[in-house]
Design a protein that fits this description.
Elements: E1 10-17, E2 23-29, E3 33-34, E4 43-44, E5 52-58, E6 64-71, E7 76-84, E8 90-97, E9 100-101, E10 110-111, E11 119-125, H1 127-131
Antiparallel strand pairs: 1-2, 2-5, 3-4, 5-6, 7-8, 8-11, 9-10
Length: 133
C-alpha cells in the first residue's frame, strides 16, 4: 500500500483524476465534517437538511487542497458523475428533489426542483473560482 486516507462521517461515491494526477472525490454528508484527511482541519458545515453533496480535491499524495459544498438545501440530491473540460473546469450531473443552492461559495444560485418528482441538473464550475474559495 502506498497511502490510505479517511474522512469520517462522509459517503464518497465518485472519484476522478485531473491531468496533474490530483484526486477529486464527490459524495454526500449529513453533519459537519472535517474534510482534511491529514493533521489539519477543514470543517464543511452541513446545511441542515437531509444531506449535502461535496466535491473534494486532494493532491496525488492524498493531501487536502479544497472542498466545496456542491448542492445545499435539497431534501434529496445526488451527483451522478463529473468530468473536466479542456480548461479543467468541472462539469457535474445529478438530480435534486426540492429547491437547492448550487453556488459553492457564500452566494446563492437556487434551482427549484419539484417536491413530488426528481429534476436532473448539469452544472459547470470554474476551476479558478473554486480553487480561490
Amino acid at each position: 500500500m502506498i497511502w490510505l486516507k479517511t474522512i469520517e462521517k462522509a459517503n464518497a461515491s465518485l472519484i476522478n483524476l485531473d491531468k496533474n494526477g490530483d484526486i477529486f472525490v464527490s459524495g454526500s454528508f449529513r453533519s459537519n465534517v472535517d474534510f482534511d484527511p491529514g493533521p489539519g482541519q477543514f470543517i464543511l458545515p452541513h446545511s441542515g437538511v437531509l444531506k449535502s453533496d461535496f466535491l473534494l480535491k486532494l493532491d496525488k499524495h492524498g493531501n487536502f487542497i479544497w472542498v466545496i459544498n456542491v448542492v445545499r438545501g435539497s431534501n434529496v440530491s445526488h451527483i451522478y458523475d463529473f468530468y473536466f473540460d479542456i480548461n479543467e473546469d468541472i462539469i457535474l450531473t445529478g438530480s435534486i428533489r426540492s429547491p437547492a443552492d448550487f453556488d459553492p461559495g457564500p452566494g446563492i444560485f437556487e434551482l427549484s426542483g419539484l417536491w413530488d418528482r426528481t429534476s436532473s441538473f448539469v452544472s459547470k464550475l470554474d476551476k479558478i473560482v473554486i480553487s480561490n474559495g
